[in-house]
Write a structure and sequence with these properties.
Elements (H helix, E strand, L loop, with lengths): L6 H25 L16 H5 L45 H35 L2
């Protein structure tokens, strides 16, 4: 049984991949903390909406002329939120703040551990249901 085909496990795997990549980006930021003109980077946040988007999704087909077309407004939940840039810039042009990077690294590590524990619990749940015949 390949667990990667199940929706929850696929979602957890994608989140773990994103967290791994984020740790790499944070490590690069920390390694370049003293490099002149280096600009700190970060990944686009992993959102539930983006995780569920799939290019293979089926689009609804209008079978009647009175069916309404789906629309997405420009306001509400679809609006992009602006993030303020929390970085300070040093006189040499470097904007990496080690304290912020360490906080991000710690949070990313905790998130990874949380997803790993959730993954283990789901596998154990499937094992117990298979053993009990349920």
């Amino acid at each position: 049984m390949n667990l990667e085909n199940l929706g929850l496990f696929k979602l957890m795997s994608r989140k773990m991949g994103w967290l791994t990549e984020r740790q790499n980006v944070i490590a690069a930021n920390i390694a370049n903390a003293d490099t002149p003109d280096y600009k700190g980077r970060d990944l686009k946040p992993f959102t539930f909406r983006d995780a569920l988007s799939d290019s293979r999704r089926l689009q609804p087909a209008a079978t009647n002329a009175s069916h309404l077309q789906g629309t997405r407004g420009t306001g509400g939940l679809n609006q992009e939120q602006r993030q303020r840039n929390p970085y300070e810039t040093a006189p040499d042009g470097n904007n990496v703040v080690l304290e912020e990077q360490m906080l991000k690294q710690g949070q990313t590590g905790m998130d990874y551990q949380t997803i790993t524990n959730l993954y283990k619990k789901q596998v154990n749940l499937i094992r117990s249901s298979i053993r009990s015949g349920g």
